[in-house]
Design goal:
Blueprint (H helix, E strand, L loop, with lengths): L14 H12 L6 E8 L2 E8 L2 H7 L4 E7 L8 H21 L8 E5 L10 H8 L4 H6 L11 E4 L4 H4 L3 H12 L3 E9 L9 E5 L18 H4 L3 E11 H20 L5 H6 L7 H12 L7 E2 L4 H20 L14
Parallel strand pairs: 4-5, 4-6, 6-8
Antiparallel strand pairs: 1-2, 2-3, 3-7, 7-8, 8-9
Length: 337
């Protein structure tokens, strides 16, 4: 079977998933990637540095630094675990700022991208609601600001379909007026793996392109465009129906292998030639069927209302801890609402 797979690649915004796909395709580790993995108390942290142009092309991600925090237990809505994740996020984010050369007193603009009217896309605006903003104190009463706080402002610029203005244009105007030293952009992402939806946080220093997770190419929030370093924080809240079908096939194959004891040819008799196709070939076939029918839907879990609130609070609490030394971890909940 000969398929043109150029339009049928697996769509994911997560660098760790792109790395996994590249390693499968190339049959081993990809040169030019530096990876550190740490796991403790149900929290897996992957630090990935893409330092080589060839590696960047192979995995389809820009040169830069990426941190991925994976916590499958977040779906259990365990408040103690959420506090641990906030603390882990704060620690990683603080180290990330130092790594890319951001000064301790740098002025920060937090940008919550997304549409607050669409639950899986409301992550950015929800985080903005819960972060501790201080710029107005520094502007109006600087002598009354206690030590341990930095100047932080926040905005949720909406989406093009609601405002008629590109988010990047709104942010550019704010940057020109307020002169921040750093932009932190928060947005919902798309994942390849169902297990990573609503359980994973990615930090990257490459900026962000609003709408890229669902295939919309928009003017980005990057240092090249805005003239200010831009860190992207994202959480996958959706995946494509074709990706789900592909994942289900893998689960079925694993199930039949276990049930038949991997007896010669048993799984192939059940699933046919699909067992001989690579993941990209299967995905290409699924998309070839679904797309003309308009059925390659963007899917989110039915519990998204609760998940999005929880993960937004985790990120907001972590940012409050990382950006303000005076914020006490024991009292971080007092800064959220």
């Amino acid at each position: 079977m000969n398929l043109d797979l150029r339009n049928y690649s697996v769509r994911t915004d997560l660098a760790v998933e792109s790395k996994e796909l590249a390693e499968t395709a190339y049959g081993g580790p990809v040169p030019g990637l530096n990876e550190q993995v740490e796991e403790q108390d149900g929290i897996k942290i992957t630090r990935l540095d893409i330092t080589d142009e060839a590696a960047s092309r192979r995995i389809g991600k820009m040169l830069g630094h990426y941190i991925t925090i994976e916590v499958p237990g977040l779906r259990s809505q365990d408040s103690d675990l959420q506090e641990k994740v906030s603390a882990a996020f704060a620690k990683e984010f603080g180290a990330f700022l130092s790594k890319i050369g951001i000064a301790e007193g740098a002025k920060v603009l937090i940008v919550g991208l997304g549409n607050w009217n669409v639950t899986p896309d409301a992550l950015g605006p929800l985080v903005v609601e819960n972060v501790l903003v201080t710029r107005h104190f520094f502007e109006l009463a600087p002598d009354q600001v206690s030590p341990g706080y930095r100047e932080v402002s926040a905005v949720a610029p909406g989406v093009l379909g609601v405002t008629g203005i590109e988010s990047s244009e709104v942010v550019q105007g704010i940057v020109d007026r307020t002169k921040p030293d750093l932009i932190i952009a928060i947005d919902a992402l798309a994942a390849r793996s169902l297990e990573r939806v609503n359980t994973t946080v990615q930090i990257a220093d490459i900026g962000i392109h609003p709408g890229s997770g669902i295939g919309n190419k928009r003017r980005g929030l990057t240092q090249e465009i805005l003239g200010v370093p831009c860190i992207a924080i994202g959480v996958p809240t959706v995946c494509y129906a074709s990706t789900i079908v592909n994942n289900v096939f893998d689960l079925m194959k694993r199930h039949f292998d276990e049930e038949t004891g991997q007896e010669q040819g048993q799984t192939k008799q059940i699933l046919g030639l699909m067992t001989e196709l690579s993941e990209n070939e299967r995905l290409g076939l699924v998309k070839e069927v679904l797309q003309p029918l308009g059925h390659d839907l963007i899917v989110t879990p039915k519990e998204i209302d609760e998940f999005i609130e929880d993960i937004a609070n985790v990120i907001a609490s972590g940012l409050n801890l990382a950006l303000h030394e005076a914020v006490n971890p024991d009292n971080v909940a007092t800064y959220t609402h």
